[in-house]
């Protein structure tokens, strides 16, 4: 059942309900609220504000410089100030002070502290100035400001500042810039500045504005505006710009770093940096003193009888304690837990117990009056928070102590006798928006966040360890468990929270299972300070080293790390993994892909042959690597200065553990970041997303990539002999083994081979299985000739001199060479001739066997018409004119040549046919227009190609008056090599 909140069961005294024990509360304030007079009275009223403000030396000096500049003095002053605040630095307080000075001018002279400012400034009086305020947390560029209240709608910082400085007239000057959300340049800014009056521009919380608008162009435009505004203000008289930018890296998430660094570098160059810094009976007594008591609710002993709702709450808490009795302190009366909770209600019994166990020995602790004062403040705050809906706790537990309330905190520190503990409290527990416990609760899972468990555990440790004031008084884990005990609490979450607090809090010290707060900063603070000083080149160097180490492991293939130009990557027939530097990531997708396409296509000034051999590994972004590497370098610096820093044993153990964890985190960040693989597809580069991976996904990053490509059939361990036959180049009868291997790394049609030498095994298997033949060539003969016989991969040579042939070609070769040579044809040379009567002509006969090889002709019988021919083939033309023949015969085979005899040489048509009238040879030579080149084969030659006997000799000449680029010539050579032709190009 739902437990009733304590403030609906019992009622505090009226003065506590009304908050009368408290002094005037201070509330966080925004500069915008001071400007529109909606802030609390202490901030809105300038005199009260100055009464409550202590002017530190730095704050007074900055205010004096601003007054001096606004008065028209340029010496010993700046026009632009940059407030770099450390933790709790008071930047908004400083801006509010400047705002009141400028708005009130001479009227401020009588305020407390004004004389100190005037004395430092060296001027006679404080000038009144036109002011403009921009607060990044308040200004919304989507909704804008104005437009529905009679003022123009402003959607940009420059529009808002212009309107505040000069109303509608000044805004009109930048109206187009505001509408287009484009920063105005100096000429335009100069027009919106007052011409005859002093001017003060205050800008606060810029990183909040940048972070909220990161997905738009506004951060870049704001950067341009601040640059232009700073440059303009520096050249103006009586004009000051004050900008507030956080200095602590812990105030920002990893995505903020690049924007922050860019803005800080600009302001460091154009402005003066200013760092602001700031120094069993007790329960009844409490009930009588702090709560409304009805005499009817007292028992015979004068003790208050609890309502039924209160007893139900106590019973549920007692059940939790009983269920976890082995994990809480042994001294707690577990068997009487219900009575213990009832005696302390509405407080948790550990609230009273901690004062008796831990605080009563403190020299300044007041056992009764001190506890009453603390609990009165506590009760009043908790009651009002409950009715405002902040919390609905059934019991007031030790972890809910309102350390965020300055009055309660002051009272607690007075009892402890150490006011300096205010900083550890506000830094690590609560009291500031960015207190570590509060931030950790905000980021935690629902069960921890809703229970406010980080804040409760940290508060419990503070009380259990006396704020660290007494040596040896620590909070133990069993004590902390009981302090935060409540029905439904998963006790395992306490250890989870303790680990997070130990790793994050600046002043929390851990020694095994014991914890306490200290005035001396701990390891997390040292890390945070070191992080801010780590330079970007060091971070990049460390990241590069880690990436190289991660990608060095795994399969034996070529690797190229962080190439800058295409000839950094070799052009060879071997799988090559290229790791791009992390700052060339997919965040700039188009530029990265253009670079990859360019380096894939080129190798220096030449075209790349082995384009598909390249596999690119590309990072998703750079920010996570930067963040983790910065942490690791900070830890390594602390390790190197361990003696100088005088770390104690617990800090040394924590440092060692953090170093080990940070090294692991950086390695994992490389795995998570390099999630993209890019390679050449059939038409363009393809992108493969490996997804969210980690080091347990594979034995190495390279293994992971190659395994993924193998699953997608983009990389193979080997190819089958049948694959080679199916993808045989139609122009080749014999395919050189080197060209075979190269094709797997030059053509996107072929899968990439993880091992180039595996092609030897493919050829050996093809020869053994009769799918391929492995041959050398001597003229028209194959030597060696290996087919359908056992051959090892080691016997296969990858070269231009050794070839593979298809099984069909091998079978034909064997068949043709199994019969003895027989004369099958005779060729007469010349085939045709034209003579005049009486001319002589010698003819030569050549024999060929069934394999088209030379066949020796022992005897040739010559016959002729139109003249006389001798036994040696010498022909003498007769007197007659016309067409005649010469015939050579041997072993039943004959061939005929054509002779044309004409006295005047006018016979032009020569019939080359034989006796049977068939045409034996046809040839043609002529110029072909380039646009008709493809038609020549399809319309003229294709029919002859199917029948065989077609021989092509190509003579190409390319000319250009503009000159032919060397790159084009190199591409021509590459293409010729890919076709298996010689690349001897004459220039």
UniProtKB/TrEMBL annotation:
Domain of life: Archaea
InterPro entries in the cross-refs: DUF499
Record organism: Candidatus Methanocrinis alkalitolerans
Keywords: Coiled coil
Family matches, as Pfam families: DUF499
Protein name listed in UniProt: DUF499 domain-containing protein
Coiled-coil regions listed: 645-672
